[in-house]
Specification:
Length: about 750
């Protein structure tokens, strides 16, 4: 009896084990479920054949999709959302059956966020797979849409003690790390998630589905609350509609190209005088040669300084905009930002003050040489045209072509921030009031520089005009302007209790228009005037004393001046970022805000004036023994200084420096385009950033050259002729002595304003 019982038990266990393994293999495949058709899951029959739809198996249990379906059906769906619910249920049921169209759609979704704790904010899935299925044209009922949502995670537990001293303690709750912000101010509880859903679904339904999937991910283990906001949805196979501005842009530049080519061919022929003026203004060859002009006035070093300062700005913006986009290693970037290299990125806005200094210096180099009274209207008109023409072309491009130059999950949202604002406030930009009027919608964030530069020129020109008419009054005005320019940023910082400087942290680079300090101090003319004034005073000193041979300084003091300037600039660059991780008082913040930019500008003045007034030591002098022992100890440094000066004076930098303004206007558009057409997260490292920055510089210079040769140079040439027509040379020799193609070479200083423009 006992033996019989044992045999029966063994036989029963064998049968159960056999069925549990064999039945899933012999599961009956159900056909694909048509979209919109009501489906009822068949129940198990008494014959033992399991007819459940296929799904993922784990230890004999059907998991994940069945859970998602259960939660999905038990939501409170409105009547308007019912079509979306039916399509979504059909998608999931067909996915259980591994039907191609359903598996294709689901395969394009990032099933759950990955790398969030490492600083990866964007989880985009596969945008192109969702938008470009092979059957969309023939099966409209299967079309999908790609929706992008911003999600904020909030903890729901209570009375949890944080370990603030070590946010990366491995034994604490991960919720503490989600609430932690690095010195770079990158939030870890915010993510952007893309999902491929039926095109009939509304944003509310998509948010509901995202919340369900997020609850079934590892982030739902601790009961996190997700606030989901769907901000955009792109439907598959939607035709692109080009507006009138798009065609107008190509029509205008096509016409300009034709005119320039025709004028270039006709320029050397015997034509009517008026026609010859036009052909000369549009001559491509002459306008290109115009970029090669070099003025040997002792400040050739500014050509190289201007171009390389622009390159540094491009590199900094490349790092900043990329870090605000989809990167996979945000944690490592945040760690590096407080390193030696990171210091250059957080307070790199002082590089723009270098351009203010250059602009002020070159303005002084022009207007202080004018003998007699200043023709104010001519100066102002000339300056406005030099700034506004290239700016207008850039705005035209942003409003017309830029929205169609890319695509991707982030494209429309990111690019609309420039396109919409430019279409709305283009007129404020061209009136040079965009840094005061509706600054929350400023067209092209980096363009705040342009109205500042124009305002500085107007005020400085008026002050110098006052000085020429009444020296005492002019000197008083200069002192008052200088004091006001230095004190105003400190006063604003003190009144509004602001940080000492606008640091390029994550919250700023991800949304610069939303920063309070950006609108109050960063872009306002009255808080950025100091560097321009110091540049103007330096230019005045240079013009007044450079031609006097007895005003040269010794080799020793010129080196001391250069080293002093470098020290001041390094001190400013590295003293700003520590305000992120240490406490400061409001008064301390105000003092630093008032002094850091003027000190930086003074550093540039020491370097440039030391190069201009210092005696350059060459090898022949050393070999001949014509220097005294007191100067010999400085010979090594002098050679280094001479090498640096000759490098920055290299003629190759002349055309590049003249194209720096166009590069400034276009570089951020190129960087943003490259970042926001991405489909996946990128690994951010220094070599990659430098490589990409080099490409941006080349592309920006090409765009700047086209703007110059087709628009900017012709308009400047025509304006110069209109303001002051040149006399016809009396002899053939006089004609030959003129620099053909360089229309501005023979203009008197009253209209020849050749400033940095950046």
């Amino acid at each position: 009896m006992l033996r019989t019982a044992v045999i029966l038990i063994i036989l029963l266990n064998f049968i159960v084990a056999y069925c549990s393994v064999l039945v899933p293999v012999k599961t009956i495949d159900s056909p694909s479920i048509p979209v919109g058709e009501k489906h009822v899951v068949p129940e198990s029959k008494g014959n033992g054949k399991n007819v459940l739809q296929k799904t993922f198996l784990f230890n004999g249990s059907y998991v994940y999709l069945e859970d998602v379906l259960f939660v999905l059906k038990n939501q409170n769906w409105t009547e308007e959302e019912q079509p979306c619910l039916k399509r979504t249920v059909s998608l999931l049921r067909n996915l259980q059956n591994f039907t191609l169209w359903a598996a294709w759609n689901w395969d394009s979704i990032a099933s759950e966020p990955q790398g969030l704790l490492y600083g990866s904010r964007f989880h985009l899935g596969n945008y192109d797979e969702c938008m470009d299925a092979p059957w969309y044209k023939d099966h409209e009922e299967l079309r999908s849409q790609y929706c992008l949502a911003d999600i904020v995670l909030e903890r729901t537990d209570k009375a949890v003690k944080k370990r603030a001293h070590d946010p990366y303690d491995p034994y604490q709750s991960a919720l503490n790390l989600l609430e932690h912000q690095s010195y770079f101010l990158r939030p870890l509880n915010r993510l952007t998630w893309g999902m491929c859903v039926p095109d009939i679904c509304q944003k509310e339904s998509v948010a509901r589905l995202m919340g369900i999937l997020l609850a079934h991910s590892h982030l739902g283990a601790a009961g996190l609350k997700a606030n989901v906001a769907v901000n955009s949805c792109d439907k598959a196979n939607e035709p692109v509609h080009y507006d009138a501005l798009f065609y107008a842009f190509f029509l205008v530049f096509g016409a300009l190209t034709v005119i320039s080519v025709v004028c270039t061919l006709l320029n050397k022929k015997d034509l009517n005088k008026r026609i010859l003026i036009i052909t000369k203004a549009f001559d491509l060859k002459d306008n290109a040669l115009d970029l090669l002009k070099i003025k040997k006035e002792g400040i050739e070093v500014l050509y190289g300084i201007r171009f390389f300062t622009m390159v540094i700005i491009v590199i900094n913006h490349q790092f900043g905009i990329t870090n605000g986009g989809p990167i996979s290693n945000g944690y490592r970037v945040d760690e590096d930002i407080v390193s030696f290299i990171g210091m250059f990125l957080l307070h790199d806005d002082v590089m723009v003050d270098s351009f203010f200094w250059l602009s002020g210096f070159l303005t002084a180099n022009i207007i202080t040489k004018v003998k007699g009274s200043l023709n104010l209207p001519v100066f102002l008109l000339r300056r406005y045209v030099r700034l506004a023409v290239a700016y207008a072309v850039t705005i035209f491009y942003i409003c017309s072509v830029y929205p169609y130059s890319g695509s991707g999950p982030l494209w429309k949202k990111a690019i609309s921030q420039d396109t919409d604002q430019c279409r709305k406030n283009w007129w404020a930009s061209l009136l040079m009031i965009s840094n005061y009027f509706d600054t929350e919608n400023i067209c092209l964030v980096v363009s705040w520089y342009i109205p500042c530069d124009f305002h500085f020129f107007v005020v400085t020109l008026l002050a110098y005009w006052l000085y020429k008419n009444n020296k005492l009054t002019g000197q008083i005005a200069a002192v008052l302007l200088s004091v006001a320019a230095i004190m105003s940023p400190g006063i604003v910082n003190y009144l509004y209790n602001l940080p000492p400087i606008q640091l390029f942290t994550f919250d700023f680079i991800s949304n610069p228009r939303g920063q309070k300090q950006f609108h109050l101090t960063y872009i306002k003319s009255h808080t950025r005037f100091a560097a321009y004034l110091i540049g103007f005073f330096s230019g005045y000193i240079f013009v007044r004393y450079y031609t006097m041979k007895n005003k040269r300084i010794s080799q020793k003091w010129s080196l001391i001046g250069m080293l002093t300037g470098i020290t001041l600039m390094i001190a400013v660059l590295f003293s700003g970022p520590p305000y992120l991780w240490r406490q400061y008082t409001v008064l301390e913040s105000a003092i630093y805000a008032a002094l850091n930019r003027p000190v930086w500008a003074c550093g540039i003045s020491f370097i440039v004036l030391s190069c201009a007034f210092g005696n350059v030591l060459n090898r022949n002098t050393i070999v001949a023994g014509d220097i005294n022992e007191r100067d010999t100890e400085w010979s090594a440094l002098s050679r280094l200084r001479a090498l640096i000066k000759s490098f920055f004076c290299w003629h190759a930098w002349v055309p590049l420096s003249r194209l720096a303004y166009g590069l400034y206007l276009t570089h951020s558009l190129i960087i943003a385009r490259n970042v926001y057409v991405t489909r996946n997260m990128q690994h951010n490292d220094y070599v990659t950033m430098l490589t990409m920055s080099g490409g941006v510089v080349v592309e920006g210079l090409i765009a700047s050259f086209l703007i110059w040769i087709l628009v900017e140079a012709p308009i400047n040439n025509l304006l110069a002729v209109c303001l002051l027509p040149r006399r016809e040379p009396s002899t053939t020799e006089e004609k030959n002595e003129q620099n053909q193609g360089h229309l501005q070479d023979n203009l008197p200083p009253v209209v020849q304003i050749d400033s940095s423009k950046v």
